[in-house]
C-alpha cells in the first residue's frame, strides 16, 4: 500500500526526522489558508499523487509549456494561482504513463534554502534477506540517470534485521554522503531514526529524494515516498486508514475485497491462475504466442465459487479483454471444485468472449468432465502451451 508525501512526512516526524513545515489542502481556499500559516516568503506547492517524477511532469490540460507538479511560489497570490492550475487536472509523469493521474490533493510547504541535495532510501533486499539502505551524494530529480550512468556514486549498506541497526551503520551512511562535523552526526542519527520507522511500520520501501542540507546546516527531508507490506497492515490500522482509493485502480480495489491478487495490464487476454509463479509463466507464454495478457490475477490456493465468480467479473470489466485463459494446478485446490466455480461464473456473467481452461492436479478428470458436460462453449486444453495457443487462436478468430 502506498501513501501520499504529506502522510509519509507526518509519520516520519513522529520518529524525530527533520521535516519542513507543510499543510495538505484539498481546495484552492485550503491551499491559500495553508500558505498563510507558514513563515514564507517562499512556498512550495506540490501535487499529491502516487507517482514519482512530479517535478518534471506536465499537466495534460495546460499545454507543453506549463510548469510541473512541484512549484516554487514567491507569494500567497502565486500559491493560489498554482493551486487553481493543479487541482482537478491530470499530471503525466514518467511513472504514470500517458494516462496520467488527476490531482485531487496538494501539499503546501515552507520554502527551504538548499545548499546540497542527497539521496537516501530503504528497502527489503530479497536476495540477501536483509534491509538495504541506499545512499548517494547525487540526490534530486536525475537520480535515475545517476543510477544508470554513474552507479559508483550510489552506496548500499545492508543491515541484518536479526542484529538490528548499529552505530557503524550510521557512520557508513554519513561517510557515503561525505558529511563532516555536525552534519555527519545528524546523518548518523537520521539513519537510525529511519531504520526504526521502517521496521516499526512494516515498510516495503522508504525513499527520501532529496534529503537536503539547508544553508542553516540542517539535514531535512524535502520529499519522501513510502509503501507498506500489505500483509502486515492488520497490525497498523492507523496506517491503513491513510489509504487513498482514488489513487488505485477500481478493479484492484474490488479484487482486494475477495483476497485476489490482481494487476491490470494493457493486453487483450484475461488470465485467471492460482499461484504467482504460474501466473507469471502464463503471461509469458501468452506473449510468446503473439498476444498480450490483460492482467495478472492470482486466485490463491483456496479459491472457491465466490472467488472464481468475482475474478471473472473483474476480468470482464476491462473492455479490452477479448478472451480468457484459466490455468489451474490443483494441489490443495481441487479441480472439480474449480470447474464447478468456472461453470457457475460463466453462466452468472453471461460470458460472451472465448474461454480456454487448462486443469491439472487433484480430481482433474472430474473437473474436465464437469466442463465438458456444462453445455458452455469452453475450450479444454491439455497443457499450458496448448492453452496459450488455443486462446490466442480463439481471440483472433473472434476478431
UniProtKB/TrEMBL annotation:
<protein>
    <recommendedName>
        <fullName>Succinate--CoA ligase [ADP-forming] subunit beta</fullName>
        <ecNumber>6.2.1.5</ecNumber>
    </recommendedName>
</protein>
<dbReference type="Pfam" id="PF00549">
    <property type="entry name" value="Ligase_CoA"/>
</dbReference>
<comment type="similarity">
    <text>Belongs to the succinate/malate CoA ligase beta subunit family.</text>
</comment>
<dbReference type="GO" id="GO:0006099">
    <property type="term" value="P:tricarboxylic acid cycle"/>
</dbReference>
<dbReference type="InterPro" id="IPR005811">
    <property type="entry name" value="SUCC_ACL_C"/>
</dbReference>
<dbReference type="GO" id="GO:0000287">
    <property type="term" value="F:magnesium ion binding"/>
</dbReference>
<dbReference type="InterPro" id="IPR005809">
    <property type="entry name" value="Succ_CoA_ligase-like_bsu"/>
</dbReference>
<feature type="binding site">
    <location>
        <position position="46"/>
    </location>
    <ligand>
        <name>ATP</name>
    </ligand>
</feature>
<dbReference type="GO" id="GO:0050074">
    <property type="term" value="F:malate-CoA ligase activity"/>
</dbReference>
<feature type="binding site">
    <location>
        <position position="117"/>
    </location>
    <ligand>
        <name>ATP</name>
    </ligand>
</feature>
<comment type="pathway">
    <text>Carbohydrate metabolism; tricarboxylic acid cycle; succinate from succinyl-CoA (ligase route): step 1/1.</text>
</comment>
<feature type="binding site">
    <location>
        <begin position="53"/>
        <end position="55"/>
    </location>
    <ligand>
        <name>ATP</name>
    </ligand>
</feature>
<dbReference type="InterPro" id="IPR016102">
    <property type="entry name" value="Succinyl-CoA_synth-like"/>
</dbReference>
<dbReference type="GO" id="GO:0005524">
    <property type="term" value="F:ATP binding"/>
</dbReference>
<dbReference type="GO" id="GO:0006104">
    <property type="term" value="P:succinyl-CoA metabolic process"/>
</dbReference>
<feature type="binding site">
    <location>
        <position position="209"/>
    </location>
    <ligand>
        <name>Mg(2+)</name>
    </ligand>
</feature>
<dbReference type="InterPro" id="IPR013650">
    <property type="entry name" value="ATP-grasp_succ-CoA_synth-type"/>
</dbReference>
<keyword id="KW-0067">ATP-binding</keyword>
<feature type="binding site">
    <location>
        <begin position="331"/>
        <end position="333"/>
    </location>
    <ligand>
        <name>substrate</name>
    </ligand>
</feature>
<dbReference type="Pfam" id="PF08442">
    <property type="entry name" value="ATP-grasp_2"/>
</dbReference>
<dbReference type="GO" id="GO:0005829">
    <property type="term" value="C:cytosol"/>
</dbReference>
<keyword id="KW-0816">Tricarboxylic acid cycle</keyword>
<feature type="domain" description="ATP-grasp">
    <location>
        <begin position="9"/>
        <end position="241"/>
    </location>
</feature>
<dbReference type="InterPro" id="IPR011761">
    <property type="entry name" value="ATP-grasp"/>
</dbReference>
<feature type="binding site">
    <location>
        <position position="274"/>
    </location>
    <ligand>
        <name>substrate</name>
    </ligand>
</feature>
<comment type="pathway">
    <text>One-carbon metabolism; formaldehyde assimilation via serine pathway.</text>
</comment>
<feature type="binding site">
    <location>
        <position position="112"/>
    </location>
    <ligand>
        <name>ATP</name>
    </ligand>
</feature>
<keyword id="KW-0479">Metal-binding</keyword>
<dbReference type="InterPro" id="IPR013815">
    <property type="entry name" value="ATP_grasp_subdomain_1"/>
</dbReference>
<comment type="subunit">
    <text>Heterotetramer of two alpha and two beta subunits.</text>
</comment>
<keyword id="KW-0460">Magnesium</keyword>
<keyword id="KW-0436">Ligase</keyword>
<dbReference type="GO" id="GO:0004775">
    <property type="term" value="F:succinate-CoA ligase (ADP-forming) activity"/>
</dbReference>
<dbReference type="GO" id="GO:0004776">
    <property type="term" value="F:succinate-CoA ligase (GDP-forming) activity"/>
</dbReference>
<feature type="binding site">
    <location>
        <position position="223"/>
    </location>
    <ligand>
        <name>Mg(2+)</name>
    </ligand>
</feature>
<dbReference type="GO" id="GO:0042709">
    <property type="term" value="C:succinate-CoA ligase complex"/>
</dbReference>
<comment type="function">
    <text>Succinyl-CoA synthetase functions in the citric acid cycle (TCA), coupling the hydrolysis of succinyl-CoA to the synthesis of either ATP or GTP and thus represents the only step of substrate-level phosphorylation in the TCA. The beta subunit provides nucleotide specificity of the enzyme and binds the substrate succinate, while the binding sites for coenzyme A and phosphate are found in the alpha subunit.</text>
</comment>
<keyword id="KW-0547">Nucleotide-binding</keyword>
Amino acid at each position: 500500500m502506498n501513501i501520499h508525501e504529506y502522510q509519509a512526512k507526518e509519520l516520519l516526524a513522529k520518529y524525530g526526522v527533520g521535516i519542513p513545515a507543510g499543510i495538505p489542502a484539498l481546495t484552492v481556499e485550503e491551499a491559500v489558508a495553508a500558505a498563510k500559516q507558514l513563515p514564507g516568503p517562499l512556498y512550495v506547492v506540490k501535487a499529491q499523487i502516487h507517482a514519482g517524477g512530479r517535478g518534471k511532469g506536465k499537466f495534460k490540460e495546460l499545454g507543453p509549456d506549463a510548469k510541473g507538479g512541484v512549484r516554487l511560489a514567491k507569494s500567497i497570490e502565486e500559491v493560489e494561482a498554482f493551486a487553481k492550475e493543479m487541482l482537478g487536472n491530470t499530471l503525466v509523469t514518467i511513472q504514470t504513463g500517458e494516462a496520467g493521474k488527476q490531482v485531487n490533493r496538494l501539499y503546501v510547504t515552507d520554502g527551504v534554502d538548499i545548499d546540497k541535495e542527497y539521496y537516501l532510501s530503504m528497502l527489503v533486499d530479497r536476495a540477501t534477506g536483509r534491509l538495504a539502505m541506499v545512499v548517494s551524494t547525487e540526490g534530486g530529480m536525475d537520480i535515475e540517470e545517476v543510477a544508470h550512468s554513474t552507479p559508483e556514486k550510489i552506496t548500499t549498506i545492508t543491515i541484518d534485521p536479526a542484529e538490528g541497526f548499529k552505530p557503524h551503520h550510521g557512520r557508513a551512511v554519513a561517510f557515503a554522503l561525505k558529511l563532516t562535523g555536525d552534519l555527519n552526526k545528524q546523518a548518523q542519527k537520521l539513519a537510525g531514526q529511519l531504520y526504526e520507522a521502517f521496521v516499526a511500520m512494516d515498510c516495503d520501501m522508504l525513499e527520501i529524494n532529496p534529503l537536503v542540507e539547508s544553508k542553516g546546516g540542517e539535514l531535512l527531508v524535502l520529499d519522501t515516498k513510502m509503501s507498506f507490506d500489505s500483509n502486515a497492515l492488520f497490525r497498523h490500522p492507523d496506517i491503513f486508514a491513510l489509504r487513498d482509493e482514488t489513487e488505485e485502480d477500481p478493479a484492484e480495489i474490488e479484487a482486494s475485497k475477495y483476497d485476489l491478487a490482481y494487476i491490470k495490464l494493457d493486453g487483450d487476454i484475461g488470465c485467471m491462475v492460482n499461484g504467482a509463479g504460474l501466473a507469471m509463466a502464463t503471461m509469458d507464454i501468452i506473449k510468446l504466442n503473439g498476444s498480450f495478457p490483460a492482467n495478472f490475477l492470482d486466485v490463491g490456493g483456496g479459491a472457491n465459487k465466490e472467488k472464481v465468480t468475482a475474478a471473472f467479473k473483474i476480468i470482464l470489466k476491462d473492455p479490452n479483454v477479448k478472451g480468457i485463459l484459466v490455468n489451474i494446478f490443483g494441489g490443495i485446490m481441487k479441480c472439480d471444485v474449480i470447474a464447478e466455480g468456472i461453470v457457475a461464473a460463466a453462466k452468472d456473467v453471461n460470458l460472451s468472449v472465448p474461454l480456454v481452461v487448462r486443469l491439472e492436479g487433484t480430481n482433474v478428470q472430474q473437473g474436465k468432465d464437469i466442463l465438458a458436460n456444462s453445455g458452455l462453449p469452453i475450450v479444454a486444453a491439455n497443457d499450458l502451451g496448448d492453452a496459450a495457443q488455443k486462446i490466442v487462436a480463439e481471440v483472433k478468430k473472434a476478431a
